[in-house]
Structures are given as structure tokens and as C-alpha cells.
Fold this sequence. Notes:
It is built from 7 helices and no strands. By secondary structure, it is mainly alpha-helical.
Amino acid sequence: xxxxxxxxxxxxxxxxRRAIEGMSEADLEKRVGGVNSIxxxxxxxxxxxxxxWLTSRGMEPIADLAPYKNGCEPCAPSFAELFAxxxxxxxxxxxxxxxxxxxxxxxxxxxxxxxxxxxxxxxxMRVFGHYYVHVGQITAxxxxxxxxxxxxxxxxxxxxxx
Length: 162
């Protein structure tokens, strides 16, 4: 069974999917109230997971997600394209995440100062929290655009602490 932190990251991914469920592609690509579009958020979350779990280990990037990293200019991307990239990145990381041990969480990725300071477990907590920041933004966007807002935190299935 995957480590609890891995299951929490998967729960956060599930909550991201739940937050966008039922929204039109046009609304997913719309900037509302100065907040980046949900399409941009999909690219941004994919960028983080790709940077943390793939390229930090020397793997080739799956997609060009540089326009969606922290501090980049807002843009109007295609939701379908970026959601597909997000799905590819998260699928590519799953086997590695499943293989992590408690000792691995204390380890570091060499080569970049940030990855040498933060251990893998801390990075995992960053990813978990990052998803919920964007789920909160999506919830606000849903409300502004007149969508029903899903109840806070859906099923915890798969993330129970054991």
C-alpha cells in the first residue's frame, strides 16, 4: 500500500477533479476576477508535479509546462490540452510515488538548492497544500460563474490513515 502522504496527494488530485466537474470548457478557460484560469491552474499543477517528481530525478519532461511555473505571465491556454498534460504527468509519477518508503521521504533530490533543502516528504506536503489552494480558487470561480459549489472535501476513501 502507498504511503499515507502519497494517498493524501492522490486525494488532493481527486479533489481537483471534483472541483472542475460539470464546468464548461469555456468557463474553465476564463479568467475571473484577476485569478488565473482553471486551465492555467491545471498546467501549473502539472508543472509542479513534473518538476518535483520527474525532472528532479533526471527524467525528460512530458510536456512544455514552463509557461505555467510560478511567476509567469498570465496566458489563455486550452483546458483540454493542459488537462491532458496534467493527466499524463500524474500518471507518469504514480509508479514512482507508489514505490516510496518512509526513508525515501527523508531523502533529497541533488542538483538544485531548493531540492537539496526540502526533503521529498516536505515536497509532498507542498504539493498537497498547493492543490487545495487552487481548489479554493476554483470554488470561488464556480460560485462567481453561478455553478453549484461542491461540499468541502469529498470522500476520504483511499486516504485513511493506517
